[in-house]
Amino acid sequence: MNCWWVFSLLVVAVNFGAEGKQKICGKKIDLAIVLDASASIGEENFKLGKDFAKRLIKRFTISKDKVQVSVIAYSQYINIASRFNDNNDEKSLDNTLDNIVYEASSSGTGKTLETVNFEVFTEKSGARSARPDIKKVTVVVTDGWSGIGTEMVKEKVGQMKRRGIEMFAVGITNSMKDEELQVISSHPLKHHFFRLTDSMAENQIIDSIVKQVC
């Protein structure tokens, strides 16, 4: 057999093995995924953000006892596409993400974070915020260009952090605004602020988030 062919088979086998050993998180987490659907993102990047969300969800054990997921998309309007107390599983969350449309309007990041804080992380929406054994996590996929300005975003996200919600900022597009993305992120920044510029970056970012929260 050709040596190059043997080498290629070995590479495929190693990669398949690594894929099969990806960590699946089964801890008790309320996870909110927030997707920026504003005009500055662009439709292709919005699709990339939705694909990222799908692949992130696959790394968690979705159930009422383990990881609950809420999906929120926003531009001028805020779309709480799924809440923690919806009867979600991986397939239904995939369908939810497929059905979210690209609004392509202004970017209401501050108002959206306020909504996530006071309407999503609530008992009414199925959040288990009062339980000390439940970790609260929000992943925001945005370019950091909000209409409200960085200082107002800082105020809104500060309210979330004071409630113990761990914040991740995933910057999308090549013209992202670092200042606002860093304001959104919990500390240390190197574990909470990432750049999703293409599909090649997805695995590394997802691995880092799963490692951090689990």
UniProtKB/TrEMBL annotation:
Domain of life: Eukaryota
Signal peptide: 1-20
The species this protein was found in: Porites lobata
Pfam families noted in UniProt: VWA
PROSITE patterns listed in its UniProt record: VWFA
Keyword Signal among UniProt keywords: yes
Gene3D superfamilies, A to Z: von Willebrand factor, type A domain
Record domain VWFA: where: 30-213
Phylogenetic lineage: Eukaryota, Metazoa, Cnidaria, Anthozoa, Hexacorallia
This protein's UniProt keywords: Signal
CDD domains given in the database record: vWFA_subfamily_ECM (cd01450)
Name of this chain's protein: VWFA domain-containing protein
Signal keyword on record: yes
